[in-house]
Protein: Putative membrane protein
Organism: Myroides indicus
Amino acid sequence: MGFIFRLLITTAIVMFLCWLLPGVEIAGWTSALWVAVVMGFLNMFLKPILVFMTLPATIVTMGLFLFVINAVIIMLSAYFVKGFEVRGFWTALLFSIVLTFCQSIVNGFLQKKEA
């Protein structure tokens, strides 16, 4: 599946979650696209560093600390993208969990279609 297609899927999911979850607001489709791009770059470059630095906490919590790292990525995306607002850590945590769940479902359907 191409990078552009995954980016558009993430954009649509971000728009849906902003409509669904209270405490998350977005200005429009262009902001959602920028959120998807920024999250992609942060997941590519910053997340491996954060995972490495917090490896002991991740091991002790049996991987649950990765949810905290995902919430931090969401909050950083809200900081960098004008028009995207997340009110609080717990909202970012819920947003990241539901976003990951939705992306997994969509990727599962698309991979079944390709096979």
